[in-house]
Amino acid sequence: SLPGKAVDLTNCAKEPIHIPGAIQPHGVLFALHEPALTVAQVSANVADILGIEPELLLGRPLGNLLDATSLGLLTEALRSDRPQENNPFPVTVGSRAFDGIVHRHQGATLLELEPVRPMTEGEDGWSPQRLLQRALARLQAAENLRELCDTAAAEVRRLTGFERVTIYRFDEEDNGEVLSEDKLEGLDAYLGLHYPASDIPQQARRLYLLNWLRIIPDREYRPAPILPSLRPDNQQPLDLSFSVLRSVSPIHIEYMRNLGLRASMSISLVHGNKLWGLISCGNHSSPRYLSYELRAACELIGRITAQLIGARQEREKQELRQKLRGLQERLVGAMRAEEEEALAGLVKQPEELLGLVGASGAAVFREGRCWTVGRVPPESAIEGLVEWLRETVKEGLFHTRALPGLYPPAETFKEVASGLLAVSLPKPAPDYVLWFRPEVIQTVNWGGDPTKPVEREGQELRLHPRRSFELWKEVVRSTSPPWTPAEVEAAADLRRYAIEVDLGHQVLREQKAV
Ligand code: BLA
């Protein structure tokens, strides 16, 4: 509980989840001092897992604990600037076998040991290597985004045995949507559901950009504290951003409990240094432990999937750019062909003018005169709108998908113009090109009420993630489909060309006058 503090979602986003001071206890963590490899910090569960009290290890060389071969492999890995490339390497302590996982971060050297788990054989008795090979081939054969995501979900599920695997994509506002799902029969379907951005706060997203796989094998774990709690060298908390055992935010644990999730794993889908989405895996009925190697295979599937998604998006963007360039050229030609009013030329190419930004109507407004094409509001309404733009919008370009929310008179013509994209041409009183998009009433299926992401407990001000994930339908009105960045850019380009052509015309007029 957080007595006396105002509790809201901003606090939630401020929880420093990279320095929880504890780990999940399915392995042990050592912070080492190089080059002697003395133990600076160790997780308290070392007594449970290795049978040695932490006090006997702190300040002493790790060599007392590991056998010579294991120590040799660790030392070898640490010769590199990127020791993590050697993960996992075999470590034996007494008669027990572990996966050794090492990395450096912020001047600390972290070694994590996880008990070796046999790679389970997948369905058909195939080895994980063969399953991985087949998965990659299938991903590469996918013909479109839907097939690619369906394949990724199915193959990760095949490889890991999680009860549910979903492909979760983020929109511009960081809300998530379940695009694909592969699950055990009998479980509720999440396919098509949306979840609010606050379900995964910013600092967690930042970590998932750094570290592409996160596993919580059993939400009912008891955190093992790191001893001592601060780094002896700088009295700072130990940064676990890249640790595989990092303990989980208690709020997220409660979220999992509310959702009935016992175990979860997320694989980041990163493209262009942006978190496009997650491959999100869940187990409801039991904990789920996976070996490091199996996790690495999943990470590889995530990497390939994200790359294929990225390549597809780039290709689509290129094709669109090509198409827009053609439209742009014809529009510029039409403006040049006009003797006087460059802008008036635009309405002589109605298909190009609308196609350029995917609008259903457009208006050119110049010195009190108005030309229109397609579905547009009444002329008096356009005049009012232009008046409003002159007063409120100082930039040369403006766009919204929800005009009535900003400009209430638009309520009366929202059926044709819930979406507005406008460019102005600098004049004493600016001219405008306006594009319109109709209202598209949309139903968004949310997994629980997105306006109540948290619940409070009585007077005590305890913050809980929501308890209900029941389907919650939101009907979005007075809104058009969004203007894409490519469309906005095309409008900005047209504005630049229009200004150029206009200037050209002015020069010509002045030359004639001389
Ligand atoms: C993390 N929240 C996460 C993660 C997911 C979700 C996938 C990544 C970690 C993981 O794989 O478990 C959300 N999980 C979902 C969603 C579904 C799902 C949407 O299965 C849909 C079916 N969460 C809240 C609120 C807060 C919050 C209100 O709902 C904060 C006040 C926090 N979520 C939160 C935090 C993390 C998180 C802090 C990071 C956990 C960590 O990595 O330590």
Would you give an account of this structure?
The chain is of the alpha+beta class. It is 34% helix and 25% strand. The protein has 14 helices and 22 strands. The chain has helices at residues 9-14, 46-50, 54-57, 68-77, 128-141, 145-160, 202-210, 250-259, 292-337, 350-355, 379-392, 403-406, 414-417, 485-513; strands at residues 22-23, 28-33, 38-43, 89-93, 96-105, 108-115, 164-170, 176-183, 194-195, 213-216, 224-227, 263-271, 274-283, 361-366, 369-374, 397-400, 419-425, 431-437, 442-447, 454-457, 462-465, 471-476. Strand 2 (28-33) and strand 3 form a beta hairpin. Helix 5 (128-141) packs parallel to helix 9 (292-337). The N and C termini lie far apart (81 Å). The model is unreliable at 1-7 (pLDDT under 50). The structure holds biliverdine IX alpha.
What is the terminal separation in angstroms?
Answer: 81 Å
Relative helix content: 25-40%
Count of helices?
Answer: 14
Count the beta strands. Answer: 22
- Average pLDDT number: 92
Strand order of the largest sheet: 1-11-3-2-6-5-4
> Strand content of the residues, in percent?
25-35%
Bound molecules: biliverdine IX alpha
Instruction: Round the Cα radius of gyration to an integer and report it.
Output: 29 Å
Silhouette: elongated
Biggest beta sheet summary: 7 strands, antiparallel
Low-confidence stretches: 1-7
The SS-based structural class is alpha+beta
